[in-house]
Write a structure and sequence with these properties.
Layout lengths: L4 E7 L4 H7 L4 H11 L4 E9 L12 E7 L2 E5 L14 H4 L5 E8 L4 E8 L2 E9 L3 E5 L7 H4 L22 H13 L17 E8 L15 H6 L2
Antiparallel strand pairs: 1-4, 1-5, 2-9, 3-4, 3-9, 5-6, 6-7, 7-8
Length: 232
């Protein structure tokens, strides 16, 4: 697995994969969403890029990517790379309101992954872990998680490296990949032929900038006409 992911999904459509396959992202709707979320910032549109190129690094904190589709909206940026996804600021759950909200993060260098699911704004499940440490494991696991916890997808260690006693029975990033398939109908790695290609899912890039301060200069005081005459 090599995909780096930091996305937040708002889903109302019954088949998000079909929506992502058939429609193009609406730049105006994406701009309007960010304007509501950041009323004190200027939102400057940029280019349209593939989902696989969105997300950025820590230095891209003032850049955000949005794909607005009918019944599906995805927002991407380093601010969603959360080891404890339940710590997502509440502003992201209020606007926009959706039936289902998913956070998905996968970090290849750190070998960790996380995900969370909200239903009508209420947290149902939150998970985050590296190969040897739990960051968060709240709520009842979904049915599609069971094979991982049952040991059907064991974490493979190099032959000369003994697994630590506290190691997980699976790689957490593989569990995040399975969440993509269960919730959104596509995967970054191990994609089925019937699934949308994440390289073909498009998003608009936006820069968040401080508003331009307009300083009003008072007009020069007017001298009464009679005073001007008196000085002649």
């Amino acid at each position: 697995m090599s995909a780096s992911v930091s996305t937040l999904w708002y889903v109302d459509a019954p088949d998000p994969a079909a929506v992502l396959r058939e429609f193009s992202p609406d730049r105006d709707a994406a701009h309007a969403l960010l304007s509501r979320l950041f009323p004190d910032r200027r939102v400057d549109p940029g280019e349209c890029v593939p989902l696989t190129d969105a997300g950025g690094h820590e230095e891209d904190a003032e850049r955000i990517w949005v794909g607005s589709y009918p019944g599906v909206t995805v927002v991407s940026g380093p601010r969603f790379r959360l080891r404890r996804p339940s710590e997502l600021p509440s502003m992201w759950l209020r606007t926009p309101a959706s039936e289902r909200t998913y956070l998905l993060a996968s970090d290849p260098p750190g070998a960790w992954g996380s995900f969370a699911a909200w239903e009508c704004g209420r947290l149902r499940r939150a998970f985050g872990a590296s190969t040897v440490e739990f960051f968060e494991d709240d709520g009842l696991p979904f049915v599609w998680e069971r094979p991982f916890w049952a040991g059907e997808h064991p974490l493979r260690w190099p032959p000369d490296v003994p697994p630590p006693p506290q190691s997980l029975p699976f790689h957490p990033r593989k569990l995040v990949e399975e969440a993509h398939g269960a919730w959104l109908g596509f995967r970054y790695v191990g994609r089925r032929d019937t699934e949308p290609d994440p390289r073909e899912i498009r998003m608009w890039s936006f820069a968040l900038r401080s508003p331009v301060l307009r300083v009003s200069v008072p007009a020069a005081p007017r001298i009464a006409w009679w005073r001007r005459l008196a000085t002649r």
